[in-house]
Amino acid sequence: MVKISIEDGVKIRGDFFIEPPQKLKKLENVLEEFGASAQKQEIVSELEQVDARLIGFSREDIAELYRELGEEK
Amino acid sequence: MKWRAINSGKHSEAMHHAIDEVLIEKMSSRDMRPTIRFWYREKPSVPLGRFQVYHDEVEHDYVQEKDIDVVRRITGGGAMYCEPGNVITYSLYLPEQEVSSGIEESYRELDRFAVEALKDLGVEASYQPLNDIEHPDGKLGGAAQLRKDDAVLHHTTMSYDLDIEEMLKVLRIGKEKVSDKAIESAEKRVSRISDCADISRKEVVEKLIERFTEGREYERSQLSEGELVEARKKTEEKFSSPDWNRKM
User: How far, CA to CA in Å, does A16 sit from each of B23, B78, B239?
Assistant: First the structure.
């Protein structure tokens, strides 16, 4: 389960695993650079620049969730 | 490579997680032999996943009222409800080169001995990716890992005789109220070793140790004084602190 909140900066939270753990912040920083109307593949490409292993979720999941949030606003 | 097997030591939840951090750091600097450590708890607690939001996972008022310790793990994964004597938790600390598979597959590899031990005892256990020990009636246990400089911390908790009704009051598992329907559906999802076989917790732990040490050189031991001292320091500075436990 992954969720993203954008109330107080971008936060990616859930019961996933990420190696190394410190890279979670880098993924969040990447999302912060994108506005609501960014293309999913653009976001995924930038997330792929972050050198981390995502276990239990994917960069696609993150990008999709982020865009859904943008659409709600 | 002689393993160390620790099957003693009752500690607070915070201290257990501090011990995990001390030992994975020692393992990563190769300052320690690989170790399996069984946990003994003092009181009910919730080990929270590293990346979870405290208030999303735990009924804060209830845990305060019941004096249940909530401690954030250094590993990812989900929150669990633990009771002394009613769960079995163990930690493995080992060099990465001892694990033959990639990260996802390594969950199954490292818990294979546990699945086999349960089957030996007549419990119909199996492994479900990513990290679940399953029974046809529900989930028996789950694992989490952290990797640090070519060292692996892998820890697993299984339900022996957990109070599931209590669990539903402690953890926010997507249900706002405790209703008969909610208990029923959770009981379908969570399985307990004691429901599956007529064996004591002690027998289960002994069988786990027996299966784990098969084909391995090992000795039964304890945490060193130095390890305990370092862990107490981390307990005070980090694992007892709301800054760490509630930060997300």
Answer: 23, 8, 21
Residues 5-64 of A with CB under 8 A from B: 11-21, 24, 53, 55-56
Residue written as tokens 């590899």?
B109
d(CA A13, CA B55): 12
Which chain B residues contact residue A20 at CB under 8 A?
Answer: 147-148
Residue that the structure tokens 């949030």 belong to: A69
CB atoms within 10 A of CB A46: 18
Q: Which has the closest alpha carbon to B96: B38, B50, B153?
A: B153
* ipTM rounded to 2 decimals: 0.94
In tens, the pLDDT along A30-69 reads: 999 998 788 999 999 999 999 999 998 999 999 999 998 8
Q: What is the DSSP string of B146-186?
A: EEETTEEEEEEEEESS--HHHHHHHB--S-SS--HHHHHHH
Token look-up 């299984």 returns B158
CA distance B184 to chain A (A): 22
How is residue B222 written in tokens?
Answer: 């304890």
